[in-house]
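> @MW can you paste both from yesterday?
MW: sure, first one:
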Amino acid sequence: MARTACGSPGSTIPTSCSWTSDSRGSEAFAELRADPKTSSIPVVALTASVTPNDCTRIAQAGFDAFLAKPMVLREFLDTVKRLVESRRT
């Protein structure tokens, strides 16, 4: 099961996402969404898979946002800020 030290409501959890059969990122995401204690926490997928099909699958999976690897720090910080602020409204 996915564990986090910052599992309080309003936390944002970045996860590295892989779409292979042994994918741990998408499994962790599914566990977070299945648990009532963590289901509302925004999750950002960090992935090197940025083909149109990959982007569609990530969006359909229900991630709150996704960023391409290599990650640009400013883009990551802006994304987390946007997600946190949207939870406050």
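MW: second:
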Amino acid sequence: MYPMITLYKVTMMEYMTAQDAAEKWDISDRRVRMLCSQGKIPGAYKDGKSYQIPADAEKPADGRERPSGSTNEMRYLKWENVGQQNRPAAPLSHCPTLSPQ
């Protein structure tokens, strides 16, 4: 009998580093590493200290959400009121640079 030889078709997948993915997706490499550690990038795996990400991987949707009711307008209104709340109760006559002229 002849020995049986089995041939396997091996397809080499191309991978990129977290830094490459960060540049491609226009986000920080720290954010890419967090997405990998959370399992949000399919096919990514850790190779030693770095992650290997499939070259054809899509950028995951940003799952972070703002608290409901949070808008930029509210942020600006909040800062407008801060100056009025922090006024001193008494005049600063002992401080010549802050006392009224």
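> thanks! Strands lie at 15-16, 45-47, 50-54.
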